[in-house]
Amino acid sequence: MKRLQSRGTLAVGTSSKLIDLAAVKVACQNCSLARLCLPLGLDGNDLDRLDRIIKRRRPVRRGEHLFQAGDPFHCLYAVRSGSIKTYTPTEDGREQIVGFYLSGELLGLDAIESQHHVCAGKALETTSVCEVPYDRLAELSNSLPSLHRQIWRLMSREISHEQGMLLILGKRSADERLAAFLISLSERFLQRGFSGREFNLSMSRHDIANYLGLAVETVSRMFSRFQEQGLLRVERRHVALEDIERLRSLVGLEAGEAPVRYS
Amino acid sequence: MKRLQSRGTLAVGTSSKLIDLAAVKVACQNCSLARLCLPLGLDGNDLDRLDRIIKRRRPVRRGEHLFQAGDPFHCLYAVRSGSIKTYTPTEDGREQIVGFYLSGELLGLDAIESQHHVCAGKALETTSVCEVPYDRLAELSNSLPSLHRQIWRLMSREISHEQGMLLILGKRSADERLAAFLISLSERFLQRGFSGREFNLSMSRHDIANYLGLAVETVSRMFSRFQEQGLLRVERRHVALEDIERLRSLVGLEAGEAPVRYS
DNA sequence: CGCAATATTGACCACTCTCAATGAGGGTGG
DNA sequence: CCACCCTCATTGAGAGTGGTCAATATTGCG
Predict the structure, then answer these.
(1) Nearest chain A Cα to B209, which residue?
(2) Span A203-230, pLDDT tens digits
């Protein structure tokens, strides 16, 4: 396996722009929100109207915040390339990561009700996002019912996804958690046209551990054990899944079963 | 402390109809969805239109399912009185409870995206609910933008709430989890016009343990310890919080602080 | 009245955390 | 270009929180 890139920029982030364009297949080439809206069949004209309210934004560098916890809520963010983690700071100065967002995913939905961001959003690598001003989105969707319901669907998906995480944190052991996490990433990379077998993690062991409710050392040990067992090969942040079926069965998924409810 | 009720029907469920009516204060007297929609200021006429699409339903008895995991999705459910637990069955026959819903709360939002219920919903006590047909709700909300955005808000709240649970399951110890759970219930009862100091649990120790990612025995021990420490008195399902401030500080909440992000 | 479900309590043990030491990269500055 | 530092990752040893197993109430329900 060759190292794909030297500096902080990971393979995943680097080539995603190309893939994105292929996947989106529409005029609104610069924004992943279009992909989010494809399933509902907005026509070119409507997509254009959507496109016009979206602001592009200079890329966010690794470690920079997209928004802080407590910030007033103005925009949703659609990831174009790169990846974002969202986390809630705890009163004792620690944090709980609540989500990792890859290209084409929408974040900020949790802030609508309180009109404040309760999570912070931080870039895991150089990441470009679109800002979707909430007020204008709401306004536009009044005249585009299908857009409105697409937001419902995206929020519903977020709820489902988090319920899957609740199951992982509530019932799973350390190895099952890591397996579920890797399978989830694998599926998501596959959807984006990348390899589901081999990829680079944009998050640190610390982030993974935090997300999965484990200690860093435990995650490290699990990676080592998985490697011993021939489930995968891992070197720093590069992972190659060697026996996906066995990983899936660790999570309780049979061959071909849809990965609806985890990570 | 006197036992409030003999049979399965708990005090909470029994008197909630009265309280509900007081809280709702509108013509749509039979449905808690109205309360959900009050914040957006639907006028009487619009509320009436909303009311007309809602089906009342014969009460669900303790242990009966409102819907099973895998059922096709048709309706959202608004709890009028009683309580519902939602849980996702795991492949190995166990379950993870993902939410408890009290009067005035809306459930089923997670099923919109996949058009199937991924959780099952089961009554914890005799419970009455309103069915809100999704298609008709979507249709109606096309002509009522404020309704549409209220659904956004409710879904956003659900996401926030679950993120709070992620923090609890990911970072909190057993005693902190139970404290957070009790505080959350206390706050919710208070909102409904009940006592936040003394209430009956409609869920079993098993349910609480499952929800909090603990063993039944641990929950039982924590109740006992809390009682020893003078934090509360507990007898079977009746709980009287005696030192709410100390319970709150266990969760990391200072006096008067809003309980946004837990349980 | 008796069985089944629920709850409590104790003893033991294991999974995972904490603490600690070491190693490997990556970035910076000389 | 190399030395240095700092962060990140790995690995080991010991400890502790919480799980498992088991026994015993207590209650509800048929």
Answers:
(1) A170
(2) 999 999 999 999 999 999 999 999 999 9
CA A144 to chain B, closest CA, distance in angstroms equals 9
Q: Give the tokens for residue B263.
A: 């349980």
Nucleotides of strand C within 7 Å of the protein's CB atoms: 6-11, 15-20, 25-27
Residues B78-113 have pLDDT tens digits of 999 999 999 999 877 789 999 999 999 999 999 999
Evaluate if the CB of A223 falls below 7 Å from strand D. yes
Instruction: Quickly state the pLDDT bin for A257 (edges 50, 70, 90).
Output: low
Query: What is the pTM for the complete model shown?
Result: 0.86
* Nearest-5° Cα angle at B30, B25 to B31: 85
Within a 13 Å sphere around the CA of B194, how many CA atoms are in the beta-carbon half? 26
Residues whose CB is less than 8 angstroms from the CB of residue B141 and which lie 6 or more positions away in sequence, other chains included:
A148, B147, B148, B151
pLDDT digits (tens, 9 = 90+) for A138-167: 988 888 888 888 899 999 999 999 999 999
User: For the segment B185-196, what is each residue's pLDDT rounded down to a tens digit?
Assistant: 999 999 999 999
Beta bridge partners of B201: none
Chain B residues with CB-CB distance to A92 below 8 A: 252
**From the DSSP assignment, how many helices (H) and strands (E) are in chain A?**
9, 11
Q: Kindly report, as residue ranges, where domains of CATH 2.60.120.10 are found in chain B.
A: 21-167
Q: Which class does domain B173-250 fall in? A: mainly alpha
CATH of segment(s) A21-167? 2.60.120.10
Q: From the list A96, A145, A149, which residue is nearest B171 (CB)?
A: A96
Three-state SS sequence of A32-70: CHHHHHHHHCCCHHHHHHHHHHCEECCCECCCCEEECCC
